[in-house]
UniProtKB/TrEMBL annotation:
Highest taxon above the source species: Eukaryota
Keywords assigned: Hydrolase
Keyword check for DNA-binding: no
InterPro entries membership: GGT-like_enzyme, GGT_lsub, GGT_ssub_C, Ntn_hydrolases_N
Gene3D superfamilies: 1.10.246.130, 3.60.20.40
Keyword Hydrolase on entry: yes
Source organism per UniProt: Pseudolycoriella hygida
Protein name per UniProt: Glutathione hydrolase-like YwrD proenzyme
Amino acid sequence: MCELFLNFGKWRIELGPLTLVNIFYSTISAISTRKKANMDGLWNSRRSAVYARNGMVACSQPLAAEAGLSILKQGGNAVDAAVAVAAALNVTQPTSTGKIVSFFNLVEFVRRKIQKKNREIFNLIYDEKLSWRIWGFTELITQVETDHSIHTSSLVCGLGGDAFLLYFDAAKKEVKGINGSGRCPLNQSIATFENLGYSEENRPPTTHPLFITVPGAAAAWVDAVELFGSQKLTLGEILAPATRMAEEGFPVAPVCAYYWGRSERLLQNASNGNEMLLNGYAPKEGEIMKMPFLAETFRELAANKKNGFYQGRIAQAIVDVIQENGGHMTLSDLQNHVSTQDEPVHVNYRGVDVYEMPPNGQGITALLALNILEGFNLDGMRHNSPEHLHIIIESLRLAFADARFYIADPAFESVPVAGLLSKEYAAERRSLINLQRAANNFEHGYPPNFSNTVYFCVVDGQGNACSFINSNYQGFGTGIIPKGCGFTLQNRGANFSLDPNHVNSLQPGKRPYHTIIPGMALKDGELYCPFGVMGGFMQPQGHLQVISNMVDFGMNPQEAIDAPRVEIDGGTAAGRILLEDGIPIETVRILEKIGHRQPTIVTGWNRSNFGTGQIILRNPTTGVLCAGSDPRNDGHAVGW
């Protein structure tokens, strides 16, 4: 029997024979993939793109995709269908793919605990299905599992969260945006946290009720239908497929069941958590889950629009459960909530105009990185080769250095958007990249001060497009459920800084730095594609990679989504580098040699680190739609 022991001081990890076999197999597979990729120059997609003419929906859950398609067939437009999909995802995918505890998180956690500051953590191809045994470690393992700031940052499509959307009007050739993010309660401030002994250095758990901001998704749905919908269908008709699934039940899909199970303990311990459980437990793959309370919430929203959510029974239930758990939200906070219509920001990347929502969203991060990347000649570079990934990583690191310093609620702070997105500033930042060596760190720049995070997309037969994202932030958010409502409340406030001098500091009525970002791209004034990659701080990194895959490497939407990705963990310039299974181990070694921090191959369930995306490409001449849906989740694209 072959066994490998890894020692961390007095603790030791044993990797059994199954682990070693899988590591060997994964290594051989990675090398084989590299050889195959060298032959055709492109990543070989795992499945075919989907083509249609009259309409297309791409999302992470098949039943939700069908709900949207049914609205298109009834005469609804892209926005009507998008809201139907959002509602259906509330039912069928209340938790979605995101970051989970991985072996690497565990190793880093151990390293911090035993304070071996100079110990180099080894790189390892890891699949979460592999087994390991740990001695002398029970207490630390429990801490990892229950500390939700380490546990998860997966996204949720929830009425208790926020939503953003971009809409392309085919007749007017315009891109419009709705910011449906909520604000901090008015009677809550940094002093509220300080009175409880918290600070930026000693933050409360991300599931703390003080991190609940006003849920903005419901208002965004209603506003989207009223502003950009076809006006042919009522809100009740649009929500009908989701209402029916919630009441009659639906079979739980595999990926959703896995992540639901990971949040089982959170829901079991949360107020009214049984509303999101099946007989007290997370539903398993293939089991029928009914959500009658959520069905009733949909009916009240359909009948009374925004007043049905931000006033009356639902609003009172939200306030009651938050205050019972120590939060400070009031009915006034809910009643005064409004979405905003924001003008999208954009850059031109090699002839394609890429649109994102402005701050407080982090979409500008993708645009910053695209502007930097544009100055490099990628012709002749092999996709995901060491030189290609080095440029991608350094461009993203520079973008995050600026994003984490400047992005905040523009109602409270001046954000120099035009300066940040100028080509001149991109050239200045690009000059900091050494093609032979990774920088130790990047500081934010000083742009000229010009005046001036579930994702899915829908395109209808007229060429209107909606790029939509909806989130509770982490897992099931706080896990706190307003009684009789069938949804959990978000913890988006965890993205605030508790440093009063930071631009993103928590303040009453302020919106936090927001990770969820929909994307839209035009070419020569015509729709190119709605696109997006959900997954916390992975989102702008995914946006950069899928757009570059299509524009620079000629991939179709499915190929662009399937291609292995790279991530700067945590969305900071100093974050460690994660590389997806399919990127050769040789590439990992070269990246480490030129100075990139702990580049590590990630496989198995942990591939959720790299987000899940959807793209619908439109041929402007024929109107034919070509869609791709991420294999890292349960979904697919459907059209007619």
